[in-house]
Write a structure and sequence with these properties.
The complex is a heterodimer of chains A (290) and B (423). With 290 residues, chain A is mainly alpha-helical. Chain A is built from twelve helices and no strands. Chain A has a domain of 175 residues: Orthogonal Bundle (MetI-like fold). The relative contact order of chain B is 0.08. The chains are: A mainly alpha (290), B mainly alpha (423).
Chain lengths: 290, 423
């Protein structure tokens, strides 16, 4: 609005301040985005170095190649880790979304007792340092291994990732439900719908954008998680982040940049989905004109 | 139920159609709704209890749990408790008991653990215990001289005092070790020797680095949050993507990028050499140290500062500033006296969140921290995975957890978790 644009009568000091401010903001945005952007061209580097050489700057086609992508795809361990990551993330997402959505529905009811306390507990996996969560879950799994083998199993990793993903689902779905008009459910009931029908015909369409956003957050959380995997999983559950972690601790091979670029593309896709959903939801609920 | 105790309809009690007092009927209806709400939350609550809260409680118990010595050296402990004056090396009876205990625990395969545990207290005990256990079977009474011949560590009074001190199954020793203190041979709490005093310094460093990260996030986040809040929505939505994209990008990817950017043969050093700011020989070490950790963590946590600031700034009407200026305040004074106080809620929320997330950071310091950029989480991981001193790791974790919980409680009090923004 008018705050940021410069009035015609601005004097020199005001102009100077205005452009300094714009410059500072541009630098901060550069700081935020440069690390992500710099990876993409470097992953096409024909040489195994991590910096731009003269040829690359001159946009010489010979300086670019897809060899690191080929290298990535030719290695069984990377291909396997993709499937492992996907399997674990999808499993954790389904569980987290189901549990989180139910809880959010309960939490946003005005009758819910001890709401702040319960909300605080449910969000805590996001706050507690990962290393503590990971070590705790590891010792817990180890102590019940006689009855249920969870260390080094897919189920164990999925359950742990579900814990980490639920706060995001709870937050996004409660946010969608804030300002939810509860008379809509009563209206549905008065029109003769039973609670299940009301849920699927009235509540679900309204909260679906929040549920999907939450699910995507849970997916990303699991897809990017490495600490719990390091503690709980065995070699069999090798995931992409763990493989990257291992690669980065030794010496980075340019293949990691190729993987990173692929992951960036996935994040862009997910972010676009969430943004579209968010705007649709705001429009539906009449919160914004845009 | 309520209907059975209902009084007949009278003029002064409002009733429902079926004759129940309205109050009771309402209470019952509300109870049903409350139960329904609780039932919806129950599955997740149980799940979080079983796979998150209980495991953490279990690990915290590990920080005070001390069953090893009591289980493996029961006879020795009994003798020491009963007949040792605590001043000299104990007599034959204690050595005989020690021999029996070590034989038993060797048979149970526990000797290695006992040796490691005693070695934490007094270095050199590992070989003393394992060697004595190995030779115990062939010994004949009296045992004292033979055991002393195997390893002279047993002639130290402190070793026996340590065994006696480790006898209780609940101990505070791990917490003492976590704050660079220990028990001496006479059960007094004393400082660790100089070269082993590392944890207090490390906690301080973690707090200090988190503070720097938080302040940097605030300084960088404030201007762009202000810009985003003041621009028309279609422009700010575009710029918002620049904030949200890092938020959605893998932590490992962003850490990789920082290595690529900042390492001595990396992009930034190359650019500086090319421009001529530095010589090719004097490339600057920007990463694999504390500075690299702070830079990378600031970028990674910046969205957590911008989002709450933005949502608070969005609610501040520009007319406040115009009012202040038309009343004669200079532009900067108006910002300082009117705008800034209005953003305090956002500043508080952002700073607390960034600080809470920063003090528990593990991955980034582990990858780009080098020697001096390690934080408390990294040492906890070291004790959990490498040194296998689980008790100490759990105690360090316990202190960290208490700190985080206090900050989280404060956050909940001031901001409320339901106001947490994720874009």
């Amino acid at each position: 609005m008018s705050q940021i644009s410069l009035p015609d009568h601005a004097d020199f000091a005001e102009k100077l301040w205005h452009w300094t401010f714009i410059g500072i903001c541009a630098l901060v945005f550069l700081f935020l985005i440069a690390p992500i952007l710099v990876i993409i061209p470097l992953s096409f580097n024909a040489e195994p170095y991590f910096t731009f050489n003269a040829k690359m700057v001159a946009l010489d086609p010979e300086a670019y190649s897809v060899r690191w992508y080929q290298d990535f795809w030719s290695k069984t361990i990377w291909r396997e880790s993709i499937w492992n990551s996907l399997f674990i993330a999808v499993g954790a997402t389904i569980l987290a979304t189901a549990l989180g959505t139910l809880a959010a529905l309960g939490l946003s009811r005005p009758e819910m007792p001890f709401k702040p306390l319960i909300m605080g507990l449910l969000i805590s996996p996001m706050i507690v340092p990962l290393i503590i969560t990971a070590a705790g879950i590891f010792f817990f799994y180890a102590s019940i291994n006689e009855y249920l083998q969870l260390t080094g199993s897919y189920l164990g990793v999925i359950l742990a990732h579900t814990v980490l993903g639920t706060p995001f689902v709870v937050i996004t779905v409660t946010a969608t439900l804030s300002g939810f008009d509860h008379s809509l459910t009563r209206a549905g009931a008065m029109c003769g719908a039973d609670p299940t029908t009301v849920f699927f015909k009235v509540i679900m369409p309204l909260i679906l954008p929040g549920v999907i956003s939450g699910a995507l957050f849970a997916f990303v959380t699991s897809f990017d998680e490495v600490v719990v995997v390091l503690f709980v999983a065995s070699v069999e559950q090798q995931t992409i982040p763990r493989q990257m972690w291992a690669g980065m601790r030794e010496s980075i091979s340019p293949t990691i940049l190729a993987v990173a670029t692929i992951l960036i593309c996935i994040s862009i896709l997910l972010l676009a989905t969430v943004e579209i959903l968010r705007r649709r939801s705001e429009r539906l609920r009449g919160l914004s004109a845009g | 139920m309520a209907s059975e105790t209902a009084t007949p309809a009278t003029a002064d009690v409002l009733t429902t159609v079926d004759g129940r007092p309205l109050k009771a009927a309402l209470a019952e209806a509300q109870r049903t709704r409350r139960i329904r709400a609780v039932l919806l939350v129950t599955p997740l609550l149980l799940f979080i209890f079983a796979t998150f809260l209980f495991p953490i409680a279990l690990m915290m118990f590990r920080s005070v749990d001390n069953p090893l010595i009591a289980q493996n050296l029961p006879k020795t402990i009994a003798v020491l408790e009963k007949s040792w004056n605590g001043k000299d090396v104990p007599g034959e009876e204690a050595f005989a008991a020690l021999r029996e205990d070590l034989m038993a625990s060797r048979a149970a395969g526990q000797v290695g653990k006992v040796a490691t545990r005693l070695n934490f207290e007094t270095s050199g005990m590992r070989s003393a215990v394992t060697r004595t256990a190995r030779k115990a079977k062939k010994m004949k009474a009296p045992y004292k001289d033979q055991i002393l011949k195997v390893h002279d560590a047993w002639s130290k009074r402190e070793v026996w005092a340590t065994i006696k001190r480790l006898a209780p199954t609940i101990t505070g020793a791990n917490y003492l070790a976590a704050v660079d203190r220990k028990y001496d041979a006479d059960d007094n709490i004393v400082s660790q020797p100089e070269e082993r005093q590392i944890y207090v310094t490390l906690f301080m460093k973690t707090l200090w680095m988190s503070t720097i990260v938080t302040v940097s996030c605030l300084l960088l986040g404030f201007p762009i949050a202000y810009l985003l809040a003041s621009l028309p929505l279609r422009h700010s939505n575009l710029l918002m993507i620049l904030v949200l994209l890092p938020f959605w990008t893998s932590l490992l990817v962003r850490t990789t990028s920082w290595i690529v950017l900042l390492q001595t043969q990396g992009v930034l050093n190359d650019i500086m050499v090319w421009i001529g700011i530095i010589d090719d020989e004097n490339r600057i070490q920007l990463i694999f140290n504390a500075q690299g950790t702070v830079i990378a963590m600031t970028q990674i946590l910046l969205p957590f500062m911008v989002l709450p600031l933005y949502s608070v700034m969005k609610t501040i009407s520009p007319s406040y500033l115009r009012a202040a200026q038309s009343l004669g305040a200079h532009r900067f004074l108006a910002y300082y006296r009117i705008y800034l106080p209005n953003t305090m809620a956002g500043i508080g929320a952002g700073c607390l969140l960034v600080f809470i997330l920063a003090i528990g950071y593990y991955i980034t310091p582990a990858l780009v921290g080098g020697q001096d950029g390690q934080m408390i989480s990294n040492v906890i991981a070291f004790h959990m995975q490498k040194s296998l001193n689980w008790g100490l790791g759990a105690a360090l974790g316990g202190i960290l957890l208490v700190g985080v919980c206090m900050l989280y409680w404060l956050y909940n009090k001031l901001v409320g978790v339901d106001n947490l923004k994720l874009g």
